[in-house]
Design a protein that fits this description.
The complex is a heterotrimer of chains A (about 325), B (about 450) and C (about 290). By secondary structure, chain A is an all-alpha fold. Chain A has one domain: Orthogonal Bundle (Ammonium transporter fold), CATH 1.10.3430. Chain A is built from 15 helices and three strands. In chain A, strands 2-3 form a two-stranded antiparallel ribbon. Chain A is globular. In chain B, about 55% of the residues are buried. Among the domains of chain B are: about 160 residues, Rossmann fold (3-Layer(aba) Sandwich); about 70 residues, no CATH class. In chain B, helix 1 crosses helix 3, helix 3 crosses helix 6 and helix 10 crosses helix 13. A six-stranded mixed beta sheet of chain B has the order 1-14-13-17-15-16, sandwiched between helices. Chain B has a four-stranded antiparallel beta sheet with strand order 2-8-7-4, with no helix packed on it. Chain B has 13 helices and 17 strands. Chain C has about 290 residues and is of the alpha+beta class. Chain C is built from eleven helices and nine strands. In chain C, about 40% of the residues are buried. Chain C folds into two domains: about 55 residues, 3-methyladenine DNA Glycosylase II, Chain A, domain 3, CATH 1.10.15; about 190 residues, Alpha-Beta Plaits (2-Layer Sandwich). The longest helix of chain C has 23 residues. The chains are: A mainly alpha (about 325), B alpha/beta (about 450), C alpha+beta (about 290). The interface between A and C is small, with 6 and 11 residues. Strand 1 of chain A pairs parallel with strand 2 of chain C, so a sheet runs across the interface.
């Protein structure tokens, strides 16, 4: 009889990297359906291209450069692909999407040593790279037309946030449109309702904890509320801040990325507050109309510092 | 519902042997009594080859301060004193006794009458506990007479009885409470007298509602004993977690429970103390759960110490064909055994047989820094970090990050989605850092 | 033009220079310059094989020592010690070169597995858990802690035997593997003339029958080798033989006397095959092993 011997514990929760990654992908389904409804073929083409490019790029790097086992089945590359696509306009030419995917996986993830070792959220690295390299294509947003509009020649318009930058608070869409997503923007970010549905799913499956998204929402609401109270004509209301741009997508799906967010609950809240403040600062005082991506990337860089100095509360720790 | 405040997990309970009446296991042909039955140094044998012993005859006396008496579980002849592979996986010294009949020492009261009245004084109780070789039966096997004698300058305020049985599969304490509730309560009263307190709390997880109800009904007749139902959460049976859950006090890092005025005893120990004090019966038998998904008859046995596990398995329906792992204790903190010939000791609370499919660990992946281990850790540590530091032999940093606070409950490894053996490395680190600290203190 | 910026930056620059100068003077650490010189001659592997924390630690110890007796950089060897002696103007003490020797021959073939270890692949962890995958609780666990600590790539696990093997060319006898092995199997032994060595490749302390049952090439502590040895180099203690390399004259009589083939010879030319010897095959095997 050949018994297995190992140290305790001898049972496991059955949780796995795959389960978490595919869980997040399931949580993104409502937002994807919403983006198909609003942007039609463009959303489908950009998402599929991005996912395929990310997966192929990771597989190629693992197989030919690192010469390790190809592990794209864990779903992390698919997730990066989907998140990258959700941050792009739906009329972006395919070749730009592919460039973004290669940068996201090649530079953002694999150059650090693959899953678990990257400092920055790979999808955001790809997105910011594209934003800086192709500012025109990256900021011409198609109007939501559904499947009636064509892919590349879609009618374009501005996002609520860029309208805000140009002409003050009076130009932005109705609040109900913001919640359902009837507005211009990246293909995955428009429908706040669909994203919140995904958030509920993530919490239910215990894939993420509430700390980071709630800290971001609260900070954005409070900080923008103060600005709005000071001058309602120059600044948007907190509700508009919460439901426009990539805030929902960023707070629920990008900031909560396991690898690049802090480990302790207290650290998560500090991280969320940092993202909230930076987002509003960039939106209201910076050159770009949208600041969530930059805010998350900056806080990604701060994460190791937070991990070093903010520790979870020890059992039996004496309060000083 | 009360529970401890930090972390915790809820593994599948799998209490297959619940409500199985305690069966008296048949006597072994040869009893193998390990000399190292308790925490601390192995005891010193006082019998030699060829000696005749009875049930309850003293076989070995303590070596050093932390050590306990060992009594014969059977009557017969000492065959040899030799080394045998025990649950630790290494060869240790043991006394082999060929069983002849079942003759008990006359001093033991074998009647089953309940003796409620406590006639012994505090000192006599402590002496009896020591003489009878009582150790903590929860698994740690710390000699009880030491635990009941608080260090000078400290005073116990409350006695906490651990009846949570938070380990999946195990049901021995549950069944003991259902069948020997009165005796346990007398045992608790004896313990209260021994440490001079007038309040005792029995913590029971609410996956045993019948035991809670039964004990609550009985406890009305005993002053100062309260039953505290607890939410099911592992590792509630950890001493520090149980104190936090029942009386809401957190034992500081590195301190003993007495620092917050608590003394914790296992419910099985309370029963053993009842038998020792009221019946003068040394600790030579205990309740053990033999269980597993593939086991024909998961059972609770009253078995003699020194019975080889193979004989217990035979009485539970035999070793299943598909056996991948055999665990002495529960699945979270038990030890995997290398053979079924290992003998039972005072600390054997269960014997779990796992089918091959469940015996192997999941494939190990990169740490994805999901922080689930941090959320699960009941001590508020960062298992991912400690494991990494221990793996890279960075001992000073591991010490600064409180590696010595780890209670080795295994919640981190259990919860890790990447299947990383976090506790394996942390345990290694604890050993090394502990050695470094001892060396530093010795200077 | 606005000169304010130039003026302000200039002032800041000057101030910083003054602060740096003062700090450099005030916090200057006076160190014997010879430490740097000695350190320059060292290999810089920081392996700790000398017993000091890193090469610099060894260098400062050399400088403060009154004689170089007992000081050895195992990596650089006598050549480096001679250089250090030159720098410090002291006499070099020639030390006998040593090499790491793995004293276990319980290969997969000789020592069948009785269970499967499923924990983290680390000897230290396996050893703290139990006696190992085989019936022998003293032998090599084969998870390669020694390989992981070797800074010189001089030790590797042979996938066929599952045992570590030392590359004598690369081994610097720094002793890192000796410290890493939880079973204390690896020993630093005298390299010997022309690299010839005889040693007992077993550390099993079990009684003969038990040891033999677990492993076909175990030392059973029978003492035949000790009786054979004319130089009193072999001692049997705790059921296991040990050859003192200071006393051993490499006569190889013990190798032939050993009934289990636990005594190994390394670096000797192949023996003439003695057909009447029944143990011939095992001797042959050992010699081919040494050639690898």
């Amino acid at each position: 009889m050949n018994l297995f011997v190992s140290a305790s514990p001898h049972v496991h929760s059955g949780d796995s990297v795959e389960k978490n990654m595919y869980g997040v992908l399931i949580a993104l389904v409502p937002a994807f359906i919403a983006s198909l409804y609003f942007f039609g073929w463009g959303a489908l083409i950009v998402t599929l291209t991005s996912v395929a490019a990310c997966v192929l790029c990771e597989a190629a790097i693992q197989k030919f450069l690192l010469k390790t086992k190809v592990q794209v089945c864990d779903g992390s590359a698919i997730l990066t692909g989907v998140l990258l696509a959700f941050n792009l306009p739906s009329n972006l030419p395919i070749w730009i999407v592919i460039v973004g995917a290669i940068v996201a996986i090649g530079v953002g993830k694999m150059s650090f040593g693959g899953l678990g070792n990257n400092v920055f959220n790979p999808a955001l690295v790809g997105r910011v790279f594209l934003l800086i390299s192709f500012p025109v294509q990256m900021t011409t947003w198609p109007r939501p037309m559904g499947f009636s509009g064509s892919y590349l020649d879609a009618e374009t318009g501005a996002t609520a946030l860029s309208l805000m930058k140009e002409g003050g608070a009076s130009n932005i869409p109705e609040t109900m449109d913001l919640i359902f997503g009837q507005m211009g923007g990246s293909l995955g970010e428009v429908s706040a309702l669909a994203l919140l549905l995904g958030f509920a799913f993530l919490l239910w499956r215990k894939i993420i904890t509430w700390h980071i998204p709630v800290a971001i929402f609260a900070t954005v609401a409070i900080f923008s509320g103060i600005l709005y109270a000071v001058d309602p004509t120059a600044y948007m209301s907190p509700v508009q801040h919460l439901f426009t741009g990539g805030l929902m997508l960023g707070a629920i799906f990008m900031a909560t990325d396991y690898v690049t967010s802090p480990m302790s609950k207290c650290g998560m809240i500090i991280y969320g507050i940092g993202i909230g403040i930076l987002t509003i600062v960039i939106r209201c005082f910076g050159a770009y109309p949208e600041g969530v991506s930059f805010a998350i990337l900056i806080m990604n860089a701060v994460t190791p510092l937070i991990n070093t100095y903010v520790k979870p509360k020890l059992f039996g720790e004496v309060k000083k | 519902m009360k529970t401890f405040s930090i972390g915790g997990i809820h593994p599948a309970e799998n209490k297959l042997s619940a409500h199985q009446t305690i069966q008296v296991a048949s006597l072994p042909k040869q009893a193998i009594v390990m000399l190292g039955q308790s925490l601390g140094a192995p005891s010193t044998p006082i019998v030699a080859k060829g000696d005749k012993v009875k049930v309850g005859t003293l076989l070995a006396t303590p070596t050093g301060f932390v050590s306990a008496n060992v009594h014969s579980p059977v009557s017969g002849t000492v065959a040899k004193i030799d080394n045998v592979v025990d649950a630790s996986g290494y060869k240790k010294a043991a006394i082999f006794i060929d069983v002849e009949g079942d003759e008990w020492e006359e001093s033991i009261d074998r009647s089953s009458d309940l003796v409620k009245e406590i006639t012994l004084s505090k000192e006599e109780i402590l002496a009896r506990v020591k003489d009878c070789g009582i150790v903590g039966l929860g698994g740690a096997t710390f000699p009880s007479h030491i635990k009941l004698a608080p260090p000078p300058g400290s005073k116990a305020e409350v006695l906490i009885i651990n009846a949570v049985e938070c380990e999946p599969y195990l049901t021995s304490d549950h069944q003991l409470m259902l069948e020997k509730g009165e005796q346990i309560l007398v045992g608790v009263s004896i313990l209260m007298k021994a440490i001079d307190v007038n309040r005792a709390v029995i913590g029971i997880e609410n996956n045993k509602p019948d035991a809670i109800k039964h004990m609550q009904k009985l406890a009305t007749e005993y002053s100062g004993i309260e039953i505290c139902p607890l939410k099911v959460q592992y590792p509630q049976g950890g001493e520090k977690q149980l104190i936090d859950a029942t009386i809401g006090r957190q034992v500081p890092s590195g301190a003993l429970p007495i620092a917050v005025g608590a003394v914790v005893q296992n419910v099985g120990t309370a029963y053993a103390i009842y038998e020792a004090v009221q019946k003068n019966k040394p600790l030579f038998e205990r309740i053990i759960t033999v269980t597993g998904k593939s086991v024909a008859r998961p059972s609770n046995f009253l078995a003699r110490i020194g019975t080889p596990f193979s004989e217990l398995i035979a009485q539970a329906g035999g070793l299943p064909e598909d056996t991948g792992k055999i665990i002495g204790g529960g699945p979270m903190m038990g030890k995997a055994l290398v053979s079924i010939d290992v003998p039972m000791t005072k600390g054997s609370s269960g014997l779990l047989i796992m089918p091959t499919l469940e015996s192997q660990r999941a494939k190990m992946n990169n740490c994805i820094r999901c922080a689930k281990c941090v959320s699960a850790c009941p001590m508020g540590l960062e298992p991912f970090l400690l494991s990494k530091l221990a793996g890279n032999a960075i001992w000073d940093s591991a010490e600064k990050n409180h590696i010595m606070d780890c209670i080795e409950c295994g919640s981190c490894s259990y919860t890790c989605p990447s299947g990383r053996p976090l506790l394996d490395y942390i345990r290694l680190g604890k050993g090394k850092v502990g050695g470094i600290i001892r060396a530093r203190n010795a200077k | 033009m606005d000169y304010t910026a130039i003026f302000v930056l200039g002032i800041i620059g000057a101030l910083a220079a003054v602060i740096l100068f003062v700090a450099a003077q005030k916090f200057k650490v006076v160190e014997d310059p010879r430490i740097d010189e000695v350190e320059a001659t060292l290999p810089g592997a920081n392996c700790g094989g000398c017993g000091y924390p890193g090469c610099r630690g060894f260098a400062s110890a050399c400088v403060s020592a009154s004689s170089l007796d007992g000081m050895l950089c195992p990596v650089g060897g006598n050549a480096t010690m001679a250089k250090i002696a030159g720098v410090l103007g002291m006499e070099a003490v020639v030390a006998e070169p040593k090499v790491a020797v793995v004293r276990c021959n319980g290969s997969c073939l000789n020592r069948p597995k009785v269970n499967t270890f499923d924990g983290a692949k680390s000897c230290a962890i396996a050893a703290s858990l139990y006696g190992g995958e085989t019936g022998c609780a003293f032998g090599c666990l084969g998870f390669g802690d020694c390989v992981n600590v070797c800074n010189f790539g001089a030790i590797f696990i042979n996938p066929e035997t599952g045992l570590p093997e030392v590359d004598e060319e690369k081994c610097t006898s720094c002793g890192a593997c000796v410290k890493a092995c939880p079973k204390l199997i690896i020993e630093l032994r005298k390299k010997g003339p022309k690299g010839r060595r005889v040693f007992v490749s077993c550390v099993n302390k079990d009684k003969g029958a038990v040891a033999r049952k677990a492993c076909s090439v175990a030392c059973i502590g029978c003492g035949k080798c000790a009786k054979e040895c004319q130089f009193e180099a072999i001692k049997i203690e705790n059921n296991v033989a040990y050859i003192d390399y200071e006393k051993c004259r490499l006569c190889r009589k013990c190798v032939e006397a050993c009934p289990t083939g636990a005594i190994h010879e390394i670096g000797f030319p192949a023996r003439k095959p003695k057909t009447e010897e029944p143990k011939e095959s095992s001797v042959e095997k050992k010699i081919t092993l040494t050639k690898e």
